[in-house]
Amino acid sequence: MGSEKQEFIWLSGLLFLNILVLSTADVHYYEFFLKESQFTKLCSTKSILTVNGSFPGPEIRVRRGDTVFVNVHNQGNHAVSLKWEGVKGSIDGSNELIQPGRNFTYKIELKDEIGTLWWHATSDWAAATVHGAFVISPATNEDYPFPAPTSDQTIILGQWFRQELTEGDKTIAPGRADAYTINGDPGVTYGCSNDTTFEMQVDYEGLYLVRVINAVANETMVFGVASHSLTIVGQNGAYTKRSFTNSLTLAPAQVVDVLLCANVNVGHYYITARPSSGTYITNGILRYLTTSS
Length: 293
Ligand SMILES: *[C@@H]1O[C@H](CO)[C@@H](O)[C@H](O)[C@H]1NC(C)=O
Ligand SMILES: *[C@@H]1O[C@H](CO)[C@@H](O)[C@H](O)[C@H]1NC(C)=O
Ligand SMILES: *[C@@H]1O[C@H](CO)[C@@H](O)[C@H](O)[C@H]1NC(C)=O
Ligand SMILES: *[C@@H]1O[C@H](CO)[C@@H](O)[C@H](O)[C@H]1NC(C)=O
Prior knowledge:
Blueprint: H1 2-24, E1 27-41, E2 44-51, E3 60-63, E4 67-74, E5 82-85, E6 90-92, E7 103-109, E8 115-121, H2 124-127, E9 131-137, E10 151-160, E11 166-167, E12 170-171, E13 179-182, E14 199-202, E15 207-214, E16 221-225, E17 230-235, E18 238-245, E19 247-250, E20 255-261, E21 268-275, E22 282-288
Parallel strand pairs: 1-4, 3-9, 10-15, 14-22
Antiparallel strand pairs: 1-2, 4-7, 5-8, 6-7, 8-9, 10-13, 11-12, 15-20, 16-19, 16-21, 17-18, 17-20, 21-22
């Protein structure tokens, strides 16, 4: 009896939530321009396919239950299709191959996804550089099921190949990466002093929702922040039971949302990302901006 009653309360709570979500759902329009851009990393310059010239690509930021139209203009030289990783709602055109010179509008109707998803090109050569975060915040009248973060930070773990992944009409299946990147930055461990290092700035006692996306094809990645423990709160677009850890192990395409509390001695700390097999390590920096009182 008791549990039936509880279930009823829980179910009506869910219904109520659904109605709220429906009543506040929003529609967003994004324009993506796929184009070749020159990038210099590991002390050499090459052309890569990007969305709007950025690597990683632009972030989509919406709320739970929203609808998103993404008009993708292919100004590159090869047909490309995009995949919306982790979307449970309906997608118009999920297998659409967009030819060079053409455009196509994906319509994504989110359901109850919450937290972080991501998007990427479907073919390996293009996915190496054509990808970005898909952030889904709580609906306007919905709270986080954990202390509200001061702000959030997306971290995309990626890879970099020295070789060009296209050659005239041909595309080349990439082999093993020459470097791993944090939000596009390889950092200083690959021996090129011109490479940039990712930096996340925090205020003392701030609480940060860090969205870690493993965009590295085929590699399990290990992520951590020196001297800071991480509280896992979400995964692949859903909240999870909270758990504490010192480092995250992310399968290819996996996304983990963690809370990071900036309550260690003011200073700067290494952020690290490395493939679980192999010897490379990529560093970023967590930098405290304010002093403790
Ligand atoms: C991409 O670039 C176009 C043209 O400059 C701009 O209108 C559009 O807003 C950009 N899209 C994103 C997601 O930044
Ligand atoms: C590093 O950057 C400087 C200034 O942009 C440039 O002159 C130099 O050639 C670069 N070095 C390498 C090895 O790419
Ligand atoms: C292509 O882009 C134009 C202009 O932005 C838009 O009106 C049209 O609907 C798009 N076509 C497709 C198939 O998405
Ligand atoms: C991933 O693995 C597949 C199958 O082994 C291979 O064809 C592809 O080139 C790999 N992709 C990357 C980016 O390493």
